[in-house]
Amino acid sequence: MAAYALGWSDADGTPQEAGGGKNLRPAIAMLCAEAVGSPAESALPGAVAVELVHAFSLVHDDIIDHDERRRHREALWKAYGVGPALLAGDSLLALAIDQVAGDSVAMRYLSRALVELVRGQTEDMAFENRPWTGPGEVSAQEYVEMAAGKTGGLLGAAAAAGVVLGGAPGLAERMWTMGRELGVAFQIIDDLLSMWGDPAVTGKPIHNDLRRGKKTFPVIAALAPPAPPAAALLAAARPAGRAARELSALLAVGVLDDDAVRRAARLVTEAGGRAAALDQARLHLATAMEIADECLPAATELRDLCLSLIDRSH
């Protein structure tokens, strides 16, 4: 089951050459070690640890979200059952901890990332029970804090462990912050792909988040009213304002059928949510790059890897 989760085999154990994910987190760890003058292999324990934690989190996330597809095939729980999948996820987490148990600083960042991941995932789940608009609505700032934990924590641990295991522990805290900012950008791009991505590329069907009432950044941004009163009056007369009102009314219905989710996605674009999400992702990516340039000025490969995140949305 662990091999299946990592993309190394199919459900009956037959080895597969293709598979796995983007390996973003281990790449960040090893590139950070290289950027401080050590061999990439010095960060291998941290690279393996963060990828195992990532795999564990996906196994559990798919169960929580009832997602039946992952990387162009059945999710682990769909292939083996919920109970076995939970145990497989737990084993991946235990193996991750074992990788960095010998380095207390790297272990501290991995532990921090796990706490952040659980906090962020809990908030993400709680958001689904809150209204789209009005009292109790999810704000853009709340979303950013959730994404910084759910997605950013593990990227922060990857960057921090990379410089720690590469011999530059003094840079760890700044690189932790860099990873968290990168994680917000990464999560927003994932939101965009969940609504407008190509399932043949992402490996998951589109619009699942909309169907479930998941509070993603493009929808939050589309529904957000303009701040100044005069701007609100102007917006109401513009197509974007009308689209936001239509979207709010549509989402208030609750469960959406196929036609409704397609219409909702179109209204999000017309209300400016798609463009606002891309702008927000670029803002957090720019902040991450500023920190990387400050701490690791020679890390051109790391910069290229991080910039490629935005390319996923096109």
Descriptive report:
The chain has helices at 2-5, 24-35, 44-65, 76-80, 82-100, 104-127, 140-150, 152-165, 172-196, 199-202, 208-212, 217-223, 229-237, 239-252, 258-270, 273-295, 300-311, and strands at 69-70, 73-74. It contains 17 helices and two strands. The chain has one domain (2-311): Farnesyl Diphosphate Synthase (Orthogonal Bundle). Helix 3 (44-65) packs antiparallel against helix 8 and helix 7 (140-150) packs across helix 9 (172-196). It is mainly α and 314 residues long.
CATH topology annotation: Farnesyl Diphosphate Synthase
CATH architectural arrangement: Orthogonal Bundle
Unreliable spans are 233-237
Contiguous helical run count: 17
How large is the share of residues in beta strands?
A: under 5%
Mean model confidence by pLDDT? 91
Output the structural class: mainly alpha
Shape: globular
How can the largest sheet be summarized?
A: 2 strands, antiparallel
Distance between the termini: 33 Å
Number of strands: 2
Please report the first level of CATH classification, the CATH class.
Mainly Alpha
Secondary-structure element pattern, one letter each? HHHEEHHHHHHHHHHHHHH
Q: What value does the Rg take, in angstroms? A: 20 Å
> Helix coverage percent of residues?
over 70%
How many structural domains are formed by the residues? 1
List the strand order in the largest sheet: 1-2
- The CATH superfamily is Farnesyl Diphosphate Synthase
Short description:
The protein has 314 residues and is mainly α.
